[in-house]
Structure prediction request, 202 residues.
Amino acid sequence: MEHEVVSLMECLGAIPDPRKPRGVRHPFAGMLVIALVGLMARQADLTAIIYHFSLHWSTLGPRLGFKPWFGLPHPTTLSRLLARVPLALLQAAYQRWLAQLIADLPLVAAVDGKYPHQSRDSQGLPFGILTVFAHDLKLCLAQWVVSDHEAEPSVLKAQLEALFECYPNLKALTMDAIFAQRGLCQMLVDLKRGYMLRVKGN
Prediction:
């Protein structure tokens, strides 16, 4: 890898801090990293994420910009901050960081929707997540919220150009039968990308 890699902290730090400067105790990018590391460590909720961070406070705290005299952030503080950061900005920061790490690798990714039982929106309605996953690297390249299985092709089609702009080395997608639609396939051809579809008997 010959190009200079921008750190995840720098990518997250480029997101505008939604808080008012007065009374801010904890670093914005550091708070986002706490949440990300906690999720990577499979912590189930914000209380568990803060507890996990407390176990590594002496090492990670100073490196993430936390001041020892303010102590650990409260789970409610982290919750309020995350609620004010648009998901699209978090995804863009993550994709910017990831794309540069894998820029030299030719990619093939699978597109699939998942519908966890516990997923509910602000109105209590269930929703799914459409994921683009590079199996060889074991990396999630992108995710989008979908209302139901039937909405998956239209959501993917709306995001295709941005997906390939972010990952120009993404050469092909594999998908199940629901994506076997003329418009979507033609768009992939126009974008000079390959695709492989599983087609059912019906």
In short: The first strand starts at residue 107 and ends at 114. The first helix runs from residue 8 to 13. Helices lie at 8-13, 28-40, 46-54, 57-63, 75-83, 87-101, 152-166, 182-190.
